[in-house]
Amino acid sequence: MAGETLLEVRNLKKHFTVEADIFGRPTAQLKAVDDVSFSIAAGETLGLVGESGCGKSTTGRTIIGLYQPTSGEVLFKGENISAADKQVMRQEIQMIFQDPYASLNPRMTVGDIIGEPLDIHRLAKGQERTKRIQELLKLVGLNAEHANRFPHEFSGGQRQRVGIARALAVNPSLIICDEPISALDVSIQAQVVNLLERLQRELGLTYLFIAHDLAMVKYISRRVAVMYLGKIVELAETDKLYASPRHPYTQALLSAIPIPDPAVERNRERIRLEGDVPNPINPPSGCRFRTRCQYAMAVCAEQEPKLTYINGHAVACHWAAE
């Protein structure tokens, strides 16, 4: 069960300068994350979904401190991360990266990869360090002898298990899962998700699960936030959002999920979005989704819809609010 609020994101923005004048002042900015707010309770999994380029991975990387936020606040256990002890925060919040091939140092053994956080945070050394590495390997479904091997000797799924073990080494409270299964074979994806669920139950972990696979997000998440072009457009409990999506973008995404019933799949109507995702350097006025929305009205070009909560179901849409 979810507990008190562990992470709170308030009006977070992350803009990247793509053009500047001779004095270094920005003349064009890519608004990757633009005024995003949400919270995650202790023990909860919040799914963050959307098309590629919508800003979901940038959100995760800004929360953990890999990117410096342009503005906004990230509160962890009520404390502003930017003002907190960096060493403590790096121990409390860890990340599992998307690519298990690129995220592991090929020149280090698996034992050294998992043991590096223990060394940095001075949590164990000598025999205690060796024992801890072996415990972590066993926890993620690998063997103790795997500690002496190099990443290239493992499959993609095994490498991601190594990445998970590395994240667990410092006993974090929150793990940001940045599309942790998208680079894996379909047959392995369910195994990794089941592993994450088991670890959450056993260790009391909290997840921000970033993905574009809505079927898998439904399986693992208690709540889901939908992002489009740097903004959250809908946020609700998983069952509510999948049963009755309110935002036209969410409706289109969910209509693309295959249904394992040939008769139902053959007869249902899929919502197809027209046009391409707008340029995040120069997004449309008002609602950013209006250029692809079949329900767009005059007000959609004039006013940006606010994320409004109604019975715990939040949506940013003029049409849905009518």
What does this entry look like structurally?
This protein is α/β, with parallel strands linked by helices. The protein has a single domain, classed as Rossmann fold (3-Layer(aba) Sandwich). The chain is built from twelve helices and twelve strands. Strands 6-7-8-3-9-10-12-11 form an eight-stranded mixed sheet, with helices on both faces. The chain is globular and about 70 Å long.
SSE diagram, text form:
Elements: E1 5-20, E2 26-41, E3 45-49, H1 56-64, E4 71-76, E5 79-80, H2 86-92, E6 93-96, H3 110-120, H4 126-139, H5 156-168, E7 174-178, H6 186-203, E8 206-211, H7 214-220, E9 223-228, E10 231-237, H8 238-243, H9 248-255, H10 262-267, H11 298-302, E11 308-310, E12 313-315, H12 318-321
Parallel strand pairs: 3-8, 3-9, 6-7, 7-8
Antiparallel strand pairs: 1-2, 1-4, 4-5, 9-10, 10-12, 11-12
Helix pairs in contact: 3-4, 3-5, 4-5
Describe this protein with a few key phrases.
single chain, 322 residues, alpha/beta, Rossmann fold, 4-stranded antiparallel sheet, 12 helices
Short summary of the structure?
The chain is of the alpha/beta class and 322 residues long. The protein has helices spanning 56-64, 86-92, 110-120, 126-139, 156-168, 186-203, 214-220, 238-243, 248-255, 262-267, 298-302, 318-321; strands spanning 5-20, 26-41, 45-49, 71-76, 79-80, 93-96, 174-178, 206-211, 223-228, 231-237, 308-310, 313-315.
